[in-house]
Amino acid sequence: MFCYQCEQTAGCTGCTQSGVCGKSADTARLQDELTGALIGLARATESNPATQNTYQTIIEGLFTTITNVSFDDDAIIRQIEKTHAAKEELVPGCGSCGAPCGKTEDYDMQQLWNDNEDIRSLKSLILFGLRGMAAYAYHAQMLGYQDDEVNDFFCEGLFKVGYENTMEELLPTVLKVGEINLKCMALLDKANTESYGTPTPAVVPLTVEKGPFIVVTGHDLKDLELLLEQTKDKGINIYTHGEMLPAHAYPKLKKYPHLKGNFGTAWQNQQKEFANLPAPALFTTNCLMPPKASYADRVFTTEVVAFPDTVHIGEDKDFTPVIEKALELGGFAEDMEFTGINGGNKVQTGFGHGTILSVADKVVEAVKAGDISHFFLVAGCDGARPGRNYYTEFVKQTPKDSIILTLACGKYRFNDLDLGEIGGLPRIMDMGQCNDAYGAIQVAVALADAFGCGVNDLPLSFVLSWYEQKAVCILLTLLHLGIKNIRLGPSLPAFLSPNILNFLVENYGIAPITTPEEDLKALLGK
Ligand code: FSO
Ligand code: SF4
Q1: Domains in the chain: how many in total?
Q2: How far is the CA of 234 from the centre of ligand 2 (A)?
Q3: What distance in angstroms lies between residue 513's CA and the mean position of ligand 1's atoms?
């Protein structure tokens, strides 16, 4: 096997025996096969118009191959079959053609992994970016939102991964992933806010009340809504986990009185946090770690998330098995007070672009009056590798007159800290899930407009943490927008070849994180 798509890849170069994430060599091979089939399907759309089924199959297939989504070989095989069927729908009889033209065959991913390192690097950026973007497109689709340009670009991008071999073509496509991902995140933002209302600030307790409960993790708000509906008046409380925390800010979700609070921290702590939990956990997306035997019977998956021998909730979205498990386990006998990693007993969320921009005048005034000296976007994924406490220390050391905007699961490193307020706004503001990077971009652009300058001229620094492929598409969006001097950690992606890394350093000033002290000094220009 060969896989180097995430931050925890073996030896910082690539997993070759089995995945650090728990993915087996067989699963990795099947995921390559699936990707090769998707490239074949994308190629078939060159001369045959794609259908709704084509797009859906591509989006699902790409999402399936993201880190910590599917460990289930049977499910991946079904996805490969579905991809072949989608191609058959486009070009009937193609598979049994006596004079194969070679234009619709599955692509062999070994060609990519064994390619020249710069070509491989650019193609990896495109492929991994497309995988991340597919997750966002999938969530939007679940709420009934689609965009033709986004859908078509999945085909275009996959085609280039398979069949384009010049740096001149691949480099602009890398940036185009960022451009289209911005549209995709805008689509999901629209889908989320039109479906559930504009997020407003919410204080979320970390206490779990006595009695039966269900923990919901992942990014899919539709799944949470359906579960809230199905558990109404059943004496079961619902707690968010990981990337589901921002759900508490959406008016149409927080109206459910049994959506009580948040349990646990970021994904990499799940094996510890779920071990003794008297409740089931529902995974709506990544990041799923292989469940330990001690709690495997309490893990439920849905959508493309899958693990062998755990109960999967299918398209009918009948959560009865999860509900029955919650009632059977019964929850805690007494209220349990949990804390975040810094000892805080509550967290805040809901500072999306709607909220921040509604007080934009106040923010601009505070900057002009010298009450706010700097903004930091400290955002991205959490992970298991040592060194990620950099982000906790960084936030703790930021000047008292600075604001920290955050999003995605990396915030659990510091979101229970109380760093005080500036002009009635908390110094740490959680903008939402990783896809809400769209909101952070809106805020940055609005501030730049208000000050009559470019985003790079604002007193705003990007300090990002990455783990999996959604972080790749977001990074490409920031590059597409011309954002410079991003600090990236905890380590740089293994799929950046030295030449491609040089290109990013020279053109965008991307730099690896060092120490909080050094980076703060550099970013504040001291
Ligand atoms: Fe985290 Fe996992 Fe949102 Fe990712 S839970 S690591 S970037 O899936 O998607 O932030
Ligand atoms: Fe390794 Fe990450 Fe790939 Fe898993 S997803 S096999 S940990 S590189």
Answers
A1: 3
A2: 40
A3: 20
